[in-house]
Amino acid sequence: MPPRIPTKSSASSASALVRSSFASPCTSQCLPSCRAGFSTTPSRERSTNLRRAFLQWTRTIGANYRQPKPEGGPNYISNARSSALQPFPLNAQFRSSRVLDEQARELIWEKVMRQGETLKAVSAELGVDLTRVAAVVRLKEVEKDWISKGKKLATPYSKAVLSMLPTKSFRPGVQNQPLEPINELHIHTATQKQLFWPTAESRQFTREDAAKAFHAKMLSADKRVPHPELIQMEKNLLRGMSPDDARARFINAAEQSERKAAEKQMKKAMAEEQATKKVNTKRFEFRFKEVDSELVGKDGRAPNVVGWKYGMPHYDRKKGLVKIPTSVP
Amino acid sequence: MPRAAQRRLHVLRRPKLRQSWSKYNLYNIWRQRDPKIGFTDHETFFQQKWRAKGLLRAYHGEHIKERDWERMFSRRLLSVANMNPRYMAENDGSEMAAGRGSGRDIVSKWKQDTVEPKTITPYMNMAFAPMERRLDIAIFRAMFASSARQARHFVVHGKVKVNGKVMHYPAYKLNPGDMFQVDPDSVMFATGQPKKKGGSSARQAITNPQDNAEAEPAAEEAEGAEAEAAEATEASEMPEQDPETTDKPEAPKADMKPTRQAIQKLTKQAKSILARDRDVSTSQKQNLRSFLKRAKPLLSKAGRSTATPTDILDELNSMVKELNLSDAPAETAAAAAAAETPSTPEQAVAAAARQEPPRSIEDLNADELKALQRLIKEEEENPADPTKPYHTPWKPRDYMSPFAFVPQYLEVNQNVCSAVYLRHPVARVGSAEVPTPFGYQINQLAFNWYLRRR
């Protein structure tokens, strides 16, 4: 075997090794010359057919999706059979729904907070779901609070996102197309069973009777919908009342129902307040409530009873049990 | 999640669809063809269900353990029926008693060539509806994060509030009416374009104080002015806020960020000096170590809400003086001086005046003035800010628009990066609210898989 003469590259790397053992770590980095091989062409990056196809896609079809459409609006991937508002080409039953734009949100806030209109009236007028109207006002209040505190809004983000979504705006003072159906009835589980309910043929079997047949305590569909006042308004119109009168009555009824709900809530809070005795100390506010120790259920293990019960395991601090809160008040 | 962490989320070979805005995911969704499960009889029913469930579980909460999802799963599928008030006013329900008990029969038109198929209520597409209640997935659906995993990261790191309180459980199940807020900076980081590698990144700003010293004071001055303006407005009119809609009013918070950065910078430099051991004497090393020891509590103190920048700066200055290093700490002192500048707004205003050459506004015509005003407004809204972890001025990230949709059960206000979970997702005639990449059959098979009692 011939003696091995160290090549230039291995010699320099050896010297680098020697140096690194003495020098401080910052100077021990490998010199550029030490990685010089025999070839000057850089090695080709690893590439597969799949990757090449992907890169080809990014240059051709994928290029349409890189940036949002310059004219705004949704830019979903589409195939021959999918519609324009379908984000997933294989799922025709999920369509992207329109969202309220800035001006529509401002209009709703204006109507509720400035003009003092009821949520139900605004919902019925604009065709926006009742809970959505409440949420828009709540979020708008947060926004106004941020502005008054000088907190910076995420305006560029908001503009960009709203330009990518299908949006809905309203014109004030005109009849607008609704955003979504507002009078939707939740399908109650008790109504999903099939009943055999013999009745006389001559009997007028109404929705009221149907509800009673399903469950003794169930309310009829007329009372369970979000806008029972709208049904009354339509009845008034059918009876020949003038549209203005019917509208005024509807608004009045909506006010009444909202006031009733507010009073009920107030009453509950007041009762809670009266039942608790508050003792303020330096650090804590202690709240005491009267508890009847007899109300522990048949076996003394009723789940919502306070205190520790003899023979009843207390899982509050047990390992491995879920302690994620179920609600945030 | 060691299993998922080892595996790559987006692959081109045997792809899985994910809850993510990645371009690979977009490509995979684009090229996904209908898997056609159950169209032929070469698979048993068990195999069909297994494959369908695998396809869907890869998308719906792939970071959630199967056991957890099985607990979450509910066989009760929610739906709604649209009740037309006009119809309800005209009919009291007794019209349904006609015919065979479900209303008068619709006469079939036998002579027509084609019969329109009845539109179904796609209940089966609601199979993964309970998943949409999870906080991390709701954040992803509200477009506040670019993937469900990133949303989870935000929650765990305390960037998310539910009803005004920090919630650090990604598995928290939202209740109807819950409002969740995500830190706007995190949202803009998640949805914005990344910083360019060659540009001034945050890391570079830390390592190179000389470059940073010029850029930073201006930005900090702007922040200071903003805070002052906010104080003034608060003093003039205390906004009456509903405690339900907003957080409780916070005390005007002094901006501690510059001070904290200064302390961090100093400690870092001290550490680097200690590492370069040859040119530092033993006594100097001792001094430096004691400095490092005392800088730690000071840093945490700066993070507290009660701290004021001036107090912290005084203490820091005295510490630097005590350090008494003759040759090594030249940069340390310079950094301390740089940290002092933002405390006086007048100096920074003067500096800004020096930077900008005087221009006369009279030369501009009306159009140019308008354009200038618009430009100024745009600049104010979307400023170039090297301290941010994302590319500034902010731009939406690439391949974002095909993923942009907000499901109906959420109401989102993008300005404050907050959303309200209105209700649980529902199915209605012709559509289901759960965003799922596959159609009815696949969902049905997956639903049947989870119906099984095991």
From TrEMBL, chain A:
Record keywords, A-Z: Coiled coil
Domain of life assignment: Eukaryota
Pfam families: Bot1p (PF12298)
Coiled-coil region(s): 252-279
PANTHER family according to UniProt: 37S RIBOSOMAL PROTEIN S35, MITOCHONDRIAL (PTHR28158), SMALL RIBOSOMAL SUBUNIT PROTEIN MS45 (PTHR28158:SF1)
Listed name of the protein: Ribosomal protein S35, mitochondrial
InterPro entries (UniProt xref): Ribosomal_mS45
From TrEMBL, chain B:
Keyword match Protein transport: no
A Pfam short name: S4
Region named Disordered: 190-288, 333-358
Boundaries of every RNA-binding S4 domain copy: 133-193
PROSITE patterns in alphabetical order: RIBOSOMAL_S4 (PS00632), S4 (PS50889)
Compositional bias (Polar residues): 201-211, 261-270
InterPro entries the UniProt entry points to: Ribosomal_uS4, Ribosomal_uS4_CS, S4_RNA-bd, S4_RNA-bd_sf
Keyword Mitochondrion applies: no
Bias (Acidic residues) ranges: 213-231
Name of the protein in question: 30S ribosomal subunit S4
